[in-house]
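pinging the channel bc i need a second pair of eyes. not urgent but kinda urgent?? the chain im working w is below, pasted from the shared doc
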Amino acid sequence: MLVDRENLIYYTGLTSIECMALVVPASGKCVCITLGIDLPFIKKNCVISNVVGYAFPQSNLGEKLVQVIKEDMGFDSPRVGFSKYFVEFSVFDALHKGLRGMDFVDITDILRVTDTGTELFTEFPKEMIQK
């Protein structure tokens, strides 16, 4: 799961993003989660085709993440990887409360591959982005 701006820019191809997450399952399609008000723009410009929105303040990013991971993807106690950057407490708290037994792992080293100082894109399989 990516929630930091730097990796979201890198993997979605977007630069105008706020309140967004990218869920990358071990298999299946990636899902971008964004504010409902940003949904038309994100769907039009994101390299990920599976984009869902949430209505704030009725919902928030953490609650929508739990819904997508648990209900849409079918994971009750998933293994969730985070990169080196921070996760807002409200997002972490929603995941912790909504996905009991969730296993947290560090995925920083698998996100991007460096070769002699040059950053290389680690591509998602085409079936994951479907665009």
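so The chain has one domain: 5-129. and The first strand starts at residue 21 and ends at 23. — does that match what u expected or am i reading it wrong
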